[in-house]
Amino acid sequence: TYKGRFHDAKAHAAGLSRWLLVNVQASGEFASHQQNRDVWANELVARAVRERFVLWQVDVDEREDGLDEGGKVSCYYKLAHDMMPHVLVVDPVTGELVHRMRAATDPNDMIAVAEKFAERRPVMPAKATKHRAGSSLAPPPRGKQEAPPVGSAASSSSNPSSEIAPCERKLGTTATKQVETVVDAGATPTCEMAPGPGEKLCKLRVRLPDGRALTKQFGAERGVGALFAFCRSEEERPFRLMRLAGGSMQQIGDENVSFDDLGLHMSTVFMVLC
């Protein structure tokens, strides 16, 4: 959590090229305490926020150093006091409000927001390049070169391909095509995990330990062993597969259970290193 004024938090987030996550609470509202307990204390939420955001929290019922930062932010973004707490995603460069959540007490909602902004970052404005006064953009003049006489050796050497016999040029072209064919044949094949025709679909997102999020499709009635196999192809170190269920983390242990039985459709599975 960033400690400081709202303007300083924006500048800090812009410098890191991260979204500013603004949490406006009211200590007199029970929902604010519930949010601290269920959302911000959640391990997966905390990790998602650390990776993608700069979190700035303020209490509208309290003033720090005589400054009413909470009141100013509430007034600027028109936040209703009776709908506390508010969670805002703010572009730190422009100050634009790009996403709003009211009275959010479910960690799944916060993780969904983190997933939404996982693939894009705020864009810093480009800086104009300054040129010194009197500098010329034109290239310096080149020295005067004399044209070689017609039929001289210099004229023939300026175009080496003209010295190559037609049969040699043909062989060179064939060799190039053969090299290109070998490169294409050596490309890594794509592993398709889509279900077969008429098979029920299970679409989910896998969050890797390095922070990447990959969307995969499996047959809903297949065992989750297919998911474990995919994860092992991405990570050699020992890991556990975790998912959010009922506000708490649950481990996926039995590889024979189907995706449908676990209700994994349109959910996020997290790879946690052991």
UniProtKB/TrEMBL annotation:
* UBX domain span: 197-272
Skewed-composition ranges (Low complexity): 147-165
Q: Which InterPro entries match?
A: Thioredoxin-like_sf, UAS, Ubiquitin-like_domsf, UBX_dom, UBX_domain-protein
- Source organism of this protein record: Aegilops tauschii subsp. strangulata
Q: Return the GO cellular component terms, semicolon-separated.
A: nucleus
GO molecular-function annotation terms?
ubiquitin binding
| Chain positions covered by the region annotation Disordered | 122-165
Among the Pfam families in the record, one is UBX
Report the protein name in the record: UBX domain-containing protein
Biological process terms in GO annotation: proteasome-mediated ubiquitin-dependent protein catabolic process
